Amino acid sequence: MTHLHDLKAASRVLLVEGYGDGNTGEIESLVWRAWSNDPENAGPRACVETFLACMDGQGHRAKSPDKGRISALLSVLSDEDPRLGPGARDGVFDFSRPELQPLTDFLRRL
User: What are phi and psi of 9, to 5 degrees?
Assistant: First the structure.
């Protein structure tokens, strides 16, 4: 498993313009897609989606849906600091997933 802190790019700013497959979004979008594509995460993914659908039904929608998904997930898995960076340092995300390869390649070149 590759961890984000292994990439040694913490002091740089990253804007994700594309994933190499025509999709665009924030880094949370890329990480969510990689995490949720792992079959082992099917159950927790359904819980997060159910929670966000429930909140939406109550009139509360995340301005950035993938940031909302990551935050909902990390509120349980990395509850001391439920943000993407600390969650990555805690090893919540497998940065060796193929969906993240373009990002890790880019960061290693920095």
Answer: -125, 25
